[in-house]
Amino acid sequence: MGSRRDFLYISTAAFGAIGAAAATIPFFSQMEPDASAIAAGGPIDVDLKTMAPGQNTIALWRSHPIYILRRPAPAIAALQSTQVVDLLADPQSEVWQQPPYAANWHRSIRPEFLIVVGICTHLGCLPKCFPDASASTPVAGWPGGYFCPCHGSKYDLAGRVFKGVPAPYNLPVPPYHFVSDTIVRIGENPPGQTFDFSSIVQI
């Protein structure tokens, strides 16, 4: 008799524990980010340690392709050459397509690394990277940069748009900063900066 009573007590307690655990599932589910929060996207970290000069890698932030290019030394020097600057529509980045800390001749925090949203400002196509003139020549007189095969828009290796192409603006630069020598955090401003990505003119 006692053993049967013990069995009932144990069974009841076990079912109660299972029920309590099941009741907590909706509670913990509510703590998960909803679809809109996931779509908004938090910062992402990208390790640049293994990137070789001339390599362009792609990350994803807020459903946007982020192009990260490690510019070779000759490409960095060419960004200020009159041969390149004279071809550009907005060489000084006067249109608000980047945070203040990237409003410089190389449009980046570190000259070695370019970080831009890889969406053509014409109709939203994805430009291809041709890091230097010797690598490939998508069009005549190509100095290296990003070329959009859809309608022929061109950008240099700072994401600055060329004159006379369909795209009206430079490629956008997202908020970002370096959390270490080799890791960049995309989607978060450097300490003390308050740039809002939604303030850019066009993506």
- Describe the strand arrangement of the main beta sheet, using strand numbers: 1-9-8
Count of separate structural domains: 2
Supply the helix-strand structural class: alpha+beta
The strand count comes to 9
Indicate the mean pLDDT: 84
Considering DSSP H and I runs of 4 or more, what fraction of the residues is helical? 10-25%
Q: State Rg.
A: 25 Å
If classified by CATH, what would the architecture of the largest domain be? Answer: 3-layer Sandwich
What form results from the Cα inertia axes? globular
Intertermini distance: 76 Å
Weakly predicted, low-confidence segments: 7-39
The CATH topology label of the largest domain is Rieske Iron-sulfur Protein
Beta-strand proportion: 15-25%
CATH superfamily of the largest domain: Rieske [2Fe-2S] iron-sulphur domain
Task: Walk me through this protein's architecture.
By secondary structure, the chain is of the alpha+beta class. The protein folds into 2 domains: 2-32; 35-203, Rieske Iron-sulfur Protein (3-layer Sandwich). The chain is 23% helix and 18% strand. The chain has helices at 2-31, 35-40, 73-78, 82-85; strands at 44-47, 56-61, 64-70, 113-117, 128-130, 145-147, 154-155, 176-178, 183-186. The strands form 3 sheets. A 3-stranded antiparallel β-sheet has the order 1-9-8, with no helix packed on it. Strands 2-3-4 form a 3-stranded antiparallel β-sheet, with no helix packed on it. A 3-stranded antiparallel β-sheet has the order 5-6-7, with no helix packed on it. A hairpin with a 4-residue loop joins strand 8 and strand 9. The longest helix is centred in the first third of the chain and has 30 residues, at 2-31. The protein starts with a helix and ends in a 17-residue tail after the last strand. Residues 7-39 have low confidence and may be disordered.
